[in-house]
């Protein structure tokens, strides 16, 4: 994905089918996708698991962003995590054979696409409905979970950006 000459996603207007109050969530996810593809373009695969100064590796960030989106959108839908989601969580950041940049980017793209599609199904009048998070059912709301999904994605996108820059030298 080449660097775009367009303004940031949030300055390109409303996205079709996304409720008005959820536009910022969709904009953040799509912005992260563009930035991540740009920074990972021509990134050396041998640096994928490197942890300069002990920070998280690029591979971890890519796995974690996709995993967090999947988990937070599951909670927002009022469901609990499946055993498959819990296994994915345990594997985040664990170096494994066959994990490469195209695989990680495809997983990320699929999850962002799935998240955007889910946003299209959310009724704005239900955004303040309570939702429990995790085994302890910590309190949140549909909107709280979706906002955190966007914020957390951008936080890790920024961390990934710094790590990639350091590793590329």
Describe the structure.
The protein is mainly alpha-helical. It contains 5 helices and 2 strands. The protein has helices spanning 23-40, 58-76, 83-91, 101-119, 142-168; strands at 130-133, 138-141. Strands 1-2 form a two-stranded antiparallel sheet. The two termini are 22 Å apart. This is Metal-dependent hydrolase. InterPro entries: DinB-like, DinB/YfiT-like.
Structural class: mainly alpha
Shape: globular
**SS element count, helices:** 5
* Share of residues in helices: 40-55%
Keywords: Hydrolase
Pfam families: DinB_2
Protein name: Metal-dependent hydrolase
Domain DinB-like: 33-160
SSE layout and pairing:
Elements: H1 23-40, H2 58-76, H3 83-91, H4 101-119, E1 130-133, E2 138-141, H5 142-168
Antiparallel strand pairs: 1-2
Helix pairs in contact: 1-4, 1-5, 2-4, 2-5
Briefly characterize the structure:
The chain is mainly alpha-helical and 169 residues long. The protein has helices at 23-40, 58-76, 83-91, 101-119, 142-168, and strands at 130-133, 138-141. It has a single domain (18-168), classed as Up-down Bundle (Four Helix Bundle (Hemerythrin (Met), subunit A)), CATH 1.20.120.
């Amino acid at each position: 994905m080449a660097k775009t000459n367009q303004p940031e996603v949030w300055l390109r207007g409303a996205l079709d089918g996304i409720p008005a109050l959820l536009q910022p969530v969709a904009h953040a996810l799509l912005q992260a996708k563009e930035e991540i593809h740009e920074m990972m373009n021509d990134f050396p695969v041998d640096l994928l698991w490197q942890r300069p100064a002990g920070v998280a590796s690029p591979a971890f960030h890519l796995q974690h962003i996709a995993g967090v989106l999947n988990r937070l959108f599951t909670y927002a839908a009022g469901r609990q995590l499946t055993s498959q989601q819990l296994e994915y969580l345990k594997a985040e950041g664990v170096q494994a054979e066959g994990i490469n940049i195209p695989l990680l980017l495809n997983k990320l793209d699929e999850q962002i696409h799935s998240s955007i599609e889910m946003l299209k199904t959310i009724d704005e009048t239900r955004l303040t409905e309570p939702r429990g998070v995790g085994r302890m059912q910590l309190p949140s709301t549909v909107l709280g979970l979706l906002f955190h999904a966007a914020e957390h994605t951008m936080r890790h996108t920024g961390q990934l950006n710094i790590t990639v820059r350091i590793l590329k030298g």
